[in-house]
Amino acid sequence: MSLPQFQKQDILKALDYIDKNGVPSHNESIKYSLISDSGKKYPPKYVIAVARHLRYGTPITTQDFVSVDAVKRLKSLGFSFDSDFELRITKEGVTSSDKNFSLDNLSIGDSCVQIDTYFEKANGERITRHRDKGEKKKSNRSLPLLACQLYEKQLSELSDEDKANFPIYKPTNGHLITGIYPSIEEFQKARKTIEYLAYQCKDGQQLVIYSWNVFSTVLFVQECLKRFGEPGDSFVLKYCYKNEQAENDADLSDEQTAPAPTFDEQAKYSKILLQSKNLIFRGAPGTGKSYLAREIATYIVSKGKTIKYDDLSADQKKQIEFVQFHPNYDYTDFVEGLRPKINDDGTMGFELKDGVFKRFVTRARKNLENSKKSDETIKKEVGVQQSISAFFSDVKFGLDKFKTITGNEFTITNVDDDHIYISIPGNATINKLTLNLDEIRKMLMASDHKFNKVKDITSFFGKSFAAQAYSYDFAIYNEIKAKKNTNLKISATSEEEKTYVFIIDEINRGEISKIFGELFFAIDPGYRGKCGEISTQYSNLHSDPDEKFFIPENVYIIGTMNDIDRSVDSFDFAMRRRFRFIELKASDKERIKEILSDLQDKELIDRAINKMNALNKEISNVDDLNDNYQIGAAYFLKLSSVDNDFSRLWTDYLLPLLQEYVQGMYDENGIIDRFKKAYENQPSDNQGDINESAQNQG
């Protein structure tokens, strides 16, 4: 049931009522307590029940709503709770009502979330953040954004040296992080991380600083006060721990809990990927390489909020691509190549199509370029696109006739995102032509350039000779200009720069040289961007043969490979030196716990770990095998598909793999028998208890 509206005065009356009449024992709160100005504590559900009774005459009952709703409503009216803390920053120091807070341990901010932020003058006047469109009220970045808002002029006028040495954050047992950067690009050149805040000044300047958790900019804010503040000025940050926030945001009863998720492993490898650009996870089968790759990509794209791919929005999922290499995979699948198509007359032809990687890179490039454009430029582009769309929406394909400047008639037969298809009935040689829509788009964008004849187009695109298509480009350009609606309401803002992660599973199973071709150069972390641009194998077939391909700075690549795969040895050396390799071991205890946590049964997890350890120990005892042949924990997740039956897991999944390992060895059956005995000799079996106990004692 939704709660009725209340005013703060209604709640104060309820507190007076409770002071006089007390709280029934069954209405005492076991989790939340409202704190009054006098310091008294009250159960929030009962406070709401009393307030509702006093205002609407309803019975005093807490059975028809949950405490979460009560807490939300009371917080919206400005009331505080015993789980909330206040951090106050002044020139002289930083204090918090939270006994766990310390300037020497600002990393605890990873576990905290902001409730409210404001600036307070000595006379008590408060100033809050003027939020931009779409900006969240509750954000880890509200505190530094408010400081930038108040001291924008002073910060932007600092010398380069002062900006470079401006204190920002001191991690636990780490060096002081300093620096106010003029752009995201400059920041990432220095720090290679997504942990930043970008503030847009009124004069167009940017102020970019390191920012991550709720406390990561406390030193920055204090330094602002020291340099620019008045006596008595302070910044106030109200916060709580994430587990408390999760309980407020979710529909939980008093008996439920919602511990804050921790993604330490994913955060660690995310930082490695952002530093290295290209990363390959290698290791034994079942060590969770593919799962981890996707979790890292999700963690980066969600900015640390989740590792579950399904939790991402549709737009966020477009920032991640997943492919699996195999022996038949080639350049045309990955980069570009000719693909068959059926022509309008029913004949078979071929057309140039981008492969999965090139399409992905194009998407990332577009985002990076758009993020650097001004609002004015984007608004202009949107206006041009609206004019193009409006024009083609009125065209009757194949019927409406248009003329070139020389009088050649043609019709438009179709249009897509990239091309305009036209028919030229009067041309006996070439009666069909494909135009590049982007060329017309660029012409419409060039408002300061006059196109009075075809020669002007030739000059605009820097060509020595006019292409046949330019005559038709010119005709369509003039038609769009003539029908342009100047009354269109256009609203557009600059796009946020995003991170794109491309995952290649089983990267060593493909013929790397054949798949990547000339991309060996462009993929190098040191040659990202236009400094690494190359001509692709099919560049002569592009609408613009001079077009170059490059991989932008916001693209990151994760590969996975099994160490026991025979193709590992032939993995291209040129590719090896362009990737950072990280081994995931089957014996890694933290990885095992992380993977098997999905089983959600401690007894089942313990049995799985014991069986896996015993089996892997026996595998390592075989002369021709080593740690690369051990069984990873991910194999034991298959228990869910065999009704948690360890015997069926052995026969259906593990045995076929192990038989492949020992094929051709002396005494294959004997080795398999040893593997089986090791697997079965676990605490779940009586004999296994005896044997393991003896081993532990010995």
Question: If you had to describe this structure to a student in words, what would you say it looks like?
Answer:
The chain has 26 helices and 23 strands. With 698 residues, it is an alpha+beta fold. It folds into five domains: 8-81, no CATH class; 98-248, no CATH class; 267-334 and 496-584, 3-Layer(aba) Sandwich (Rossmann fold), CATH 3.40.50.300; 375-483, no CATH class; 591-697, no CATH class. Helix 1 (8-21) packs across helix 2 and helix 2 (44-56) packs across helix 3. The longest helix has 20 residues, at 375-394. Residues 244-261 and 682-698 have low confidence and may be disordered.
Strand composition percent: 15-25%
State the end-to-end distance: 64 Å
**The CATH architecture of the largest domain:** 3-Layer(aba) Sandwich
What does the main sheet amount to? 5 strands, antiparallel
Uncertain spans? 244-261, 682-698
- Summarize model confidence as the mean pLDDT: 85
Number of domain units: 5
Assembly classification: single chain
CATH homologous superfamily name of the largest domain? P-loop containing nucleotide triphosphate hydrolases
Count of helices?
26
Count of beta strands: 23
User: What strand line-up does the widest sheet have?
Assistant: 5-4-12-6-7
> Mind telling me the CATH class of the largest domain?
Alpha Beta
Shape: globular
Helix-residue proportion: 25-40%
> Strand pairing plus helix content: what structural class?
alpha+beta
Q: Would you give the CATH topology of the largest domain?
A: Rossmann fold
* Overall radius of gyration: 32 Å
